[in-house]
Amino acid sequence: MPYYQTWEEFARAAEKLYLTDPMKVRVVLKYRHCDGNLCIKVTDNAVCIQYKTDQAQDVKKVEKLHGKLMRLMVSKETHSGAMETD
Amino acid sequence: MVLLENDSFLTELTRLFQKCRTSGSVVITLKKYDGRTKPVPRKGHSESFEPADNKCLFRASDGKRKISTVFVNLNSFLQAYSNLLRAHMDGLKKKDKKSKSKKTKATQ
């Protein structure tokens, strides 16, 4: 279960994993206020990628990634490239 | 597992965050949902089910209590959800200014 060191790599890998099988992938977010850390996991029950942080600046990034994945889930397009309407 | 309306889910999520400020963790799960209410049958017969493509399932838990909701129209929710996360996840470390000043001293 690899913990990614940089947010950019994690975000890219998360999106890629989601696009391989949208129905299987789930995103899990665990926040501990008492310890002051945040852990995100994206998995399709075969591949699992994680990112851990204790930095406030990462909250915004997490929330943006959540929004992006939510929009992918709700859109009827199967490919993210097709989200732009011509 | 309590299935709630979208607004009640946000309210309950706020309550979960507030409850867990002193101890414990809040776990939020997000998954694409196709609207099935029955398990996948072993042999054939899955033709009678029309999978919806545009819903997502949200779950939240504090270890004891579980809540969930299904979303179809995201736009109104997304703003509220982002604000909620940003407002409550404030126990993390801010940018370390000390290390920055150390770096500037080292370069001089």
Summarize the structure.
Chain A is α+β, with helices and mostly antiparallel strands and 86 residues long.
Structure description:
- The complex is a heterodimer of chains A (86) and B (108).
- By secondary structure, chain A is an alpha+beta fold.
- Chain A has two helices and three strands, in the order αβββα.
- A three-stranded antiparallel sheet of chain A has the order 1-2-3, covered by helices on one side.
- In chain A, strand 1 and strand 2 form a beta hairpin.
- The radius of gyration of chain A is 13 Å and the shape is globular.
- Residues 78-86 of chain A have low confidence and may be disordered.
- Chain B has 108 residues and is an alpha+beta fold.
- Chain B has a four-stranded mixed sheet, covered by helices on one side.
- The longest helix of chain B is centred in the last third of the chain and has 15 residues, at 74-88.
- The radius of gyration of chain B is 21 Å and the shape is elongated.
- The model of chain B has no long low-confidence stretch (mean pLDDT 83).
- The A-B interface holds A 22-23, 25-34, 36-38, 53-60, 62-63, 66-67, 69-71, 73-76 and B 17, 20-34, 53-56, 71-72, 74, 78, 81-82, 85-86, 88-95.
- Chain A: This is Signal recognition particle 9 kDa protein.
